[in-house]
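#structure-requests
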Amino acid sequence: STRKESSAASDVYKRQQQIVGDHATVTTLTQPGQEAHGLELKPTQVASVGEADLVMYLKQFQPAVDEAVAQSGNEHVLDAAQFADLLPATGAEHDHDHGDDDDHDHDHGDDHDGHDHDHDHGDFDPHYWLDPNRMAKVGQALADQLGKQYPEMKDDLQANAKKFSESMSKIDEEYKAGLAKCERKEFVTSHTAFNYLAHNYGLTEIGISGINPDGEPSPARIAEVQKLAKEHDVTTIFFETLTSPAVSKAIAGDLGLKTAVLD
């Protein structure tokens, strides 16, 4: 079979394999369970970028991947940001722009159709894979690109993309049904990685830190989170498995709340 090489966030490669089926092999530069933001590549991984039939990545999300793509000279590159309609970043480091507006009822997605997405990822939220509908769009883009490169695969790729889109729609409906009757719509997280989830399903994310999971929240931000947690009768402070839970646990301890993993 023809071999393709793809890089993206750690779990996305499984979705890409559903698109290419038996026609290609998808591998990932970010291994499952590996923190994606600060990725470092081995020399063999850098070399694989140049040898790949297609490199799929999210531009300006992982500097090491951007550098490898630039150095490789590979002409077959697909930037997922061009198709994912990235939302503007929200969170602690953007409070001066967005204030305390954590209401995601308005849709920013269509505002970026056809625009140049060669932006600093600090201005846009990279975590599009938490939105099944955006995943379907990127899956379709992958099928379209490979179909251009390998016309003999086009029909199979398009059929797989359709099945993939249907599976994403099913997940979307499950989220809508499961989150429709939440006792509270606000949730507190260690960093603002879940904006797409909140945006799609009528929730409000309150991030302790911003887009960067390693960012240190200021004392003022911690105080603001504590205030919001009290206002919204929050019961749980969430943290992720790959980042330090210290701040989340400290806030929970101060307020007498529970902690849990949201990954």
